[in-house]
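Researcher: Next entry in the queue.
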Amino acid sequence: MDKIKMTTPLVEIDGDEMTRVLWQWVKDILITPYVDLKTEYYDLSLENRDATDDKVTVEAAEACLRLGVGVKCATITPNAQRVEEFGLKKMWASPNATIRAKMDGTVFRAPVIVRGITPLVPAWKKPIVIARHAYGDVYKGVEMKSKGGKAELSCDGNTLTVFDFGGKEGILQAIHNTKASIESFARSCFNYALDTKTDLWFSTKDTISKVYDHTFKDIFAEIYEAEYKEKFEAAGIEYFYTLIDDAVARVMRSEGGFIWALKNYDGDVMSDMVATAFGSLAMMTSVLVSPTGAYEFEAAHGTVTRHYRKYQKGEETSTNSVATLFAWTGALKKRGELDGNKELSDFADRLEKATIDTIESGEMTKDLAGMFKLDGVTVKALNSREFLEAIAKRL
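Model: Structure for this entry, 395 residues:
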């Protein structure tokens, strides 16, 4: 058969270790046999980031903004041990953080739902999408230890006493955000809710943080009333604000089926909680959405170093590739949507269905085999490549 044609390239952002291996297998087994794949390729392996002084990461982000759709493999964020292991020039920043800052984006993460893997929260029936603000908070915080002095916060000619330690040792931290970034976060959330026709929840702790958190609340409210209220009503969806502790209680009792927008740290923590409760980080989709409408799809987990060490020795691995695979399908689907290429979008939908059908039929990687239970289905644990080949048979 003729391969499906593409008119505009995807930005392909390669990564590290076991996920890099899976990346190539996904392409070879499930995509390039059927799609005349066009990509603009960027190698974000740790070695190449070091060789280019990390310029390749910025170039990849700029390409996503220019072409509108990117797909990213998991990458290593180096610590001191990695600096020594790879002989790096320095401890380079997180590629995800660099790309998020450059694209001014919001991260949306949602679980892949399959029959046979029951959420730990019994009420959850539909996906809960975490929308995480990807700028500021503790990730750009300034910290120090105090030997007992007086800490002050000074800006625009105003000075506030943070705390007088009175000779006692302690610790302190200062965090910040910008109005422009919060506005981008709000618009990305509202646009994504409209795009997916999903209710949007937003929560902070504005009763305690009467300036920092309250500003988030106010900006969301102002933008919603001025730009999105009529659109939401026409789409039949709701925007809902509540305190974060109330939101947590509501989420635990809900059946899911909404987007939960959170500040950077809150979103980081809650996305891991939601992923684990639904099944696994390897079963989470993740997309970075810029306020200008550019998308970068990515695997929501790390580079699976432990499995990579086994792979290097020639040993068999059973690595779950669903998150990597759904990053590709998400990107292909969005590229098809933006280009009016229905054949490409339909292919991505079929590939996702083939993946879910494979798992629900009992063929899966070992991590899922241990939690899968469906009446009448016999579980067969497959190795990394066998799982992709099983999907290919259904595709």
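Model: The chain has 14 helices and 16 strands.
Researcher: Noted, moving on.
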